Amino acid sequence: MARQPEKFERKKVRKRRKPMSPEQKAAAVERLAKARAKRAAANPPTYKNVHPDVVAIPDDGHLSLAKVRKWIKHNRELLKEERSSLRAGVKGAEAKVKSLEGYVRNMEKYLRDGDWCDDFWGEEQQNKTKWRCIAMAYDKDGNPKRTQGVYYEDLGYRWGFEPEEEEA
């Protein structure tokens, strides 16, 4: 059997749009904002990959979804810079890269599971996490195991530090 010659189909060439006037741009921006607001009201985001406890935190909370996503974005940008300095052979760059990678990984885990497992928090890791014991552990003699700096409900203060004086 002889092969049929393939037909050549010319692709459609798209014409470029005429540039919009400033008034037309402003009107388009207004229409788009209105349409986005209407769509957001009709179909609110479901956040299937984010833990419900994280979604429930208001936007002004310390570990809210919006803030943590902003921190992740900021630290990924820092990570790009540190990786370039690592390739350039800057001393200490490898430690910074590993630290930033771990911090980003921990923040993503927090969004997924709802458990903050890093010792620091904030955009630049500037705040220290204060841990709280929710379930006591005991040694073989029945004495409670304690870690310095952890808040214990039964004591009412952070263990290893003097209890704060109550002002009268």
Description:
This protein has 4 helices and 7 strands, in the order H-H-H-H-E-E-E-E-E-E-E. It has 168 residues and is mostly helical. Among the domains are: 52-117, no CATH class; 130-168, no CATH class. The strands form 3 sheets. It has a 3-stranded mixed β-sheet, with no helix packed on it. Strands 1-2 form a two-stranded antiparallel ribbon. A two-stranded antiparallel ribbon has the order 4-5. A hairpin with a 5-residue loop joins strand 1 (120-121) and strand 2. It starts with 21 loop residues before the first helix and ends in a 10-residue tail after the last strand.
Provide key terms for this protein.
mainly alpha; two-stranded antiparallel ribbon; 4 helices; 168 residues; 3-stranded mixed beta sheet; single chain
Present the secondary structure layout:
Blueprint lengths: L21 H21 L9 H5 L8 H23 L5 H21 L6 E2 L5 E2 L3 E2 L3 E2 L5 E2 L5 E2 L4 E2 L10
Parallel strand pairs: 3-6
Antiparallel strand pairs: 1-2, 4-5, 6-7
Helix pairs in contact: 3-4
Q: Order of helices and strands, N to C?
A: HHHHEEEEEEE
Query: Biggest sheet: strands side by side, in what order?
Result: 3-6-7
Counting DSSP H or I runs of 4 or more residues, the number of helices is 4
State the major sheet. Answer: 3 strands, mixed
Name the average pLDDT.
Answer: 90
Structural class: mainly alpha
Q: Give a count of the beta strands, DSSP E runs of length 2 or more.
A: 7
Q: Give the fraction of residues assigned to helices.
A: 40-55%
